[in-house]
């Protein structure tokens, strides 16, 4: 406490004002803590308030069999709703990012922004508590550490979601060729497109669970009465893969104009194999260029040392004798 008072006093230049600022900060923190605990204990524990929060949240998550959200999740949703806006979040870029990362919940945007708001505050509080334990810290370094903690808390959720998005899209891209081949076989054997998608989802449930879940969701939308083209468009929007978007465009045109779905899938499968072969050849062609840098920075110094080193040693010995 004395350390914090000395830091504030050195910043404002008045010990009385420093004590007043410190007391105001402590009082504000206590009020915020009491309000937060009151929301958790009194507000969300109330059956009426919890029911109203669930109704406002929507029953989509409960309809698919997920468990009821916890009080902490409801609190994060309320904080994020105040921060990020409700209706605009449904079509925002954050919604698309979270959807590609696998978070399809109706409250995903609110929880995401609430975490990005509360995590910097939490890390700043931890930094303020840790600073007195570090002796001989100047005001500038303490301020830099506090700002760094806030920046880390703001960036960590974004980096985590981005990495999760990249990993999920990679797994979907790996499983897409198998799903396409199975879909061609199912359609050519006489199954309709919804039944073929359902069968492919069942077959890929173990090897590619995320892609199977997406295909099962397409089949559920079709069964619910959504047109095939719209359900496939939703699949392309959820995955964000160019390969899936190309397939969805071809299938939508095939359904619209009444052409054979089997022929469309077979042609796209052949084109997709050609693109995979071209992508593999492109990666192989880049290997020679990528190997230049390891050769220059790793092998060339050792070769130079072995080839020129003895000559340099001999020249030094010769000049040493002179």
TrEMBL record:
The chain crosses the membrane at residues 20-42, 113-134, 140-161, 291-316. InterPro entries: T2SS_GspF_dom. Residues 180-307 form the Type II secretion system protein GspF domain. Its main location: membrane. Pfam families: T2SSF. Keywords: Cell membrane, Membrane, Transmembrane, Transmembrane helix. It is a multi-pass membrane protein. It comes from the Bacteria. It is found in: Cell membrane. PANTHER family: INTEGRAL MEMBRANE PROTEIN-RELATED, PILUS ASSEMBLE PROTEIN. This is Type II secretion system F family protein.
């Amino acid at each position: 406490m004395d350390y914090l008072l000395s830091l504030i006093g050195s910043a404002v230049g008045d010990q009385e004002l420093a004590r007043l600022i410190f007391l105001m900060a402590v009082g504000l923190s206590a009020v915020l803590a009491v309000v937060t605990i009151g929301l958790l204990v009194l507000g969300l524990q109330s059956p009426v308030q919890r029911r109203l929060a669930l109704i406002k949240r929507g029953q989509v998550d409960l309809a698919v069999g997920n468990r009821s959200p916890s009080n902490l999740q409801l609190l994060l949703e309320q904080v994020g709703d105040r921060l990020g806006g409700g209706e605009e979040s449904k079509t925002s870029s954050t919604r698309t990012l979270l959807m590609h990362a696998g978070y399809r919940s109706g409250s995903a945007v609110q929880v995401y922004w609430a975490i990005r708001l509360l995590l910097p505050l939490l890390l700043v509080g931890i930094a303020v508590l840790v600073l007195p334990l570090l002796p001989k810290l100047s005001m500038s370094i303490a301020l830099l550490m506090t700002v760094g903690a806030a920046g880390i808390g703001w960036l960590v959720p974004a980096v985590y979601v981005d990495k999760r998005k990249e990993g999920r899209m990679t797994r979907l891209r790996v499983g897409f060729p198998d799903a396409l081949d199975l879909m061609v076989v199912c359609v050519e054997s006489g199954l309709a497109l919804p039944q073929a998608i359902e069968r492919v989802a069942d077959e890929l449930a173990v090897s590619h669970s995320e892609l199977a879940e997406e295909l099962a969701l397409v089949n559920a939308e079709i069964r619910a009465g959504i047109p095939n083209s719209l359900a496939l468009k939703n699949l392309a929007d959820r995955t964000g893969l160019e390969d899936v978007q190309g397939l969805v465009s071809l299938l939508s045109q095939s359904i619209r104009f009444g052409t054979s779905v089997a022929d469309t899938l077979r042609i796209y499968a052949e084109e997709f194999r050609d693109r995979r072969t071209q992508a593999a050849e492109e990666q192989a062609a880049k290997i020679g260029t990528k190997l230049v840098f390891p050769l220059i920075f790793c092998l060339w110094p050792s070769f130079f040392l072995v080839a020129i080193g003895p000559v340099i040693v001999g020249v030094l010995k010769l000049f040493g004798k002179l």
